[in-house]
Predict the structure.
Amino acid sequence: MESYNSFRVARQQIQEAAKILNLDEATIELLIHPQREYNFTMHVRMDDGKVKIFQGYRIQYNYARGPAKGGIRFHKDETVDTIRALACWMTWKTAVLDLPLGGGKGGVCFDPKRMSEHELERISRAYIRAIAPLIGADQDVPAPDVYTNPQTMAWMMDEYETIINRHQPGVLTDKPTQIGGTEGRRDATARGGVITVREACKQLNIDPTGKFAIQGFGNAGQRAALLHEELLGGGKLIAVSDSRAAIYNAEGFDAKELVMHKLKTGSVKGFPGAKEIPHENLLELDVEVLYPAALENAISSSNADKIKAKILCELANGPTTPEADIILSKNGVHVIPDILASAGGVTVSYFEMVQDKYSFFWEEDVVHKTLDQKLTQAYKTVHEAQKEKNVHPRLAAMVVGVARVAEACKLRGWV
Ligand code: GLU
C-alpha cells in the first residue's frame, strides 16, 4: 500500500504546471512554500471539568491575489502537511475561478464525533481566539470544511466580533443568513460540481440523466444527489457511501428520502431497499458520473484502473493521486479536477464577502445565476488550456491557476 503525503502531491502538481509555463526558479520556490503558517495549541475545558489541549493550524498559503481564503477542518487525522496541501489547493481554486482571493486553510486535530455541542462551541471559540490577530475581512477569511458548518461559523464570528468590539461579518463565510450569510451558500459546492458535469456532458456528448454514484455523503454529497434533478433534468443515483457503509440499488435511490434518512440516523446505513456493498466497490461501478466527495487520496494507483465512470467529478479536495491521474487519463476517464469541480463553495463565499462589505443582500436566484456564469466560464477556460497545452484536465486547471498567481506575484515585485 502506497502512503501519500498530500503536500508532496500538491507540490508535484505545481512543478508540473511550472514546467509547462516555463516559470523561473524564484517563482517556483515561492509557489511551493506556504507564505505564512500558524501552529498553536489551545486549552479547552471539557464537560467533565478537565482541560484538554488541542493542536490547531491556520495556513495562509498565498495572498498575492487577495485575502487568504479557505475552510477550517475538525478532523482527527489532520496534520500540518494536510493543511498545507489544502491551503495550497485553495490558492489555485480561487485563481481558476478568477476570484480576487488567495488560498488558506485551517484545522484542529480531534474527533468531533466524540464531543458534545457545548464542547464544540468552546473549541470553536478557542480556535478563533488563537487566530484572531491574523484574520479579518481583508486579511484571511475562513469558512467551513470537513465537520464544521454555519453554526461553527456563527460561534466563531461572535467570538471574533467580541474581541474586536465591532461588527465584521465578512471575517468568515457560510454563516447563517440571519447574521450576514448569503442565500445559496449551503448547496454551492455541489451546485458548482453539477454545473461542471453539465458542461462536460455537453462537451463529450454524454447523457446527463444517466447513472451516478457518490462517495461521501456529507453536505456536498447530499446536495449533489438532490441537484441532479434541478440542473440536469434527472439521473439515477445507484450507490452512495459514508464512513459507516456503502449502499447500492440498481433501480436508483430516492435522493430526498436518502438525505432524510442520513440526517435522522447519522448514516446511509440501513436505508430501506439498499444492498450493502464493500466501500471499494462503489468506485468501480459502471456509471456516467462518479463523485468522490469524501477525503484526500481516495483514488490511487491501486484502484484507478478499475474505475469505469465516464466522468469523475471531484467534489472532495485532492481525492486523486498523481499516479492515478495518469491511469485515468490513459483509460479515457474525464476528470473534472477538484480546483474546478469543488470551487462553487468558495465562489459563493466570495459573493458573501461582497454582500457583507456593502451590507446589502442578493436574492437566491441572483446567487445561482452568477455562480453558474462563473463556473461555466472557468470550465471553458480550463477546457481551452487543455486543448492548447495538450494535457489532462487537472494539469490544465493547474496551468490556469498557477499562471494567474505567478503573474500577481510578479506584478507585486515578489519575484
Ligand atoms: N471548504 C470549502 C473548499 O474547500 C470552501 C472554502 C471557502 O468557502 O472559503 O473549497
User: Anything to note?
Assistant: The two ends are 40 Å apart (CA to CA). The CA atoms of residues 298 and 319 lie 5 Å apart. The mean pLDDT is 96. The chain has 14 helices and twelve strands.
